[in-house]
Amino acid sequence: MSTESARPPHLRATALALVLVGGFCGTAARDLVQNAFPHSASGVPWATFGINLAGAFVLGVLLEGLARSGEDDGRRRRIRLLAGTGFCGAFTTYSALATDTVQLWEVGHRTTAGIAYAAGTVLAGLVCTWLGLMVASRTARGGAR
Amino acid sequence: MILVLTFLAGALGAVARFVADAELRRRVLPDGPWATVLINVSGSLVLGGLAAWAHRSASGESALAILGTGFCGGYTTFSTASYETMRLIEQRRYTVAVLSGAGGLVLAVAASLLGWAAIAAS
What we know:
The structure holds two protein chains of two kinds.
Chain A: H1 2-5, H2 8-36, H3 46-69, H4 74-91, H5 95-106, H6 111-144
Chain B: H1 2-27, H2 34-56, H3 60-75, H4 79-90, H5 94-121
Helix pairs in contact in B: 1-3, 2-3, 2-5, 4-5
């Protein structure tokens, strides 16, 4: 572990590569799901809604699980960068959440639906994150027994 | 071809977020959810403009796919924003949680609307 921290440039290149690969896969997965469940500009984007909630849940499980298993270094740090920062980060999207809300207003003329979609995603996302943290902490406690 | 470019742009967006987040935390915003909020707001501004461009002309379609779905999608993130708000709630820092959670959403939608209006009006 100490040898790795003594080599920041190497670590840095590894970190960037892990985020790059995770980000590629996360974007591909998001695009696949969105294309499988397309929506019109005036319709609620349920695919993006599901993607953001699923990603929030998985990131909660991942980060809590990693934190409970030890320090953020070595293999745990690599998993966090690849699956967390890279995959979950790119799989979920905030810009589409904001812009689909604007589309519901500007193209669909559905102001209330836009507000409900945006606020509903953020609130349901918090519930999913919380569920993820719960699942990881219960699993960790069960494993420790 | 557009599909591969979209995925690659998403990968670069994720790296841009990773670097921007680290630099923002190192220089100006060491604590809390504000680096993520700033990233999400800036990405929403760009995607709003791209969406307006694609809505107006067919030439914007590929740009929306590669730069919008790809780069902006990979650059901005919902899961981290949600995680950071949840941690603030756990720490009972309710004011910051509401300010960054609700405020981050309002700012991102406002930024996207600004980007949309700027391109739609031009």
